[in-house]
């Protein structure tokens, strides 16, 4: 399914910060010690519910990346909200499966955490509106219900 927006349904709050590097809408984000924003960088690690959204006010879509030093529009998602987030290339999934940070802004299934990595936080579950999918050929937006 091709998505036109990152926010799907549910409550969220809009915030903006400067990008510390390239950011793609749908990425899970984290705030750096310098007060900028970057892709969440810890596989399975704790994360705020910060999600990069498209910059529609500037005519951008879900396919337009932010560059370093751009002002990034992001959602602070409420539990239960559904966002179209980037699943990592190669993932296979179905509704209800739990997802965590892949350590690069994308998401992976809990079952696919690297050996030796301690899982600290589930980000969400593949939403019931999402059909089961086979191995993804590229990082792909999928509907995720935030926990």
Characterization of the model:
- By secondary structure, the chain is mostly beta strands.
- It has one domain.
- 0% of the residues lie in helices and 33% in strands.
- The chain has strands at residues 7-9, 12-18, 29-31, 37-39, 50-52, 71-77, 82-87, 98-101, 107-109, 124-126, 140-146.
- The strands form three sheets. Strands 1-7-11-10-8-9 form a six-stranded antiparallel β-sheet, with no helix packed on it.
- The radius of gyration is 14 Å and the shape is globular.
- It starts with 6 loop residues before the first strand and ends with a strand.
- 37% of the residues are buried.
Largest sheet, spatial ordering of strands = 1-7-11-10-8-9
What's the main sheet like? 6 strands, antiparallel
The total domain count is 1
Q: Provide the structure class.
A: mainly beta
Give a nutshell description of this structure.
The chain has strands at 7-9, 12-18, 29-31, 37-39, 50-52, 71-77, 82-87, 98-101, 107-109, 124-126, 140-146.
Features:
3-stranded antiparallel β-sheet, 147 residues
Question: Secondary structure elements and their pairing?
Answer:
Blueprint: E1 7-9, E2 12-18, E3 29-31, E4 37-39, E5 50-52, E6 71-77, E7 82-87, E8 98-101, E9 107-109, E10 124-126, E11 140-146
Antiparallel strand pairs: 1-7, 2-6, 3-4, 5-6, 7-11, 8-9, 8-10, 10-11
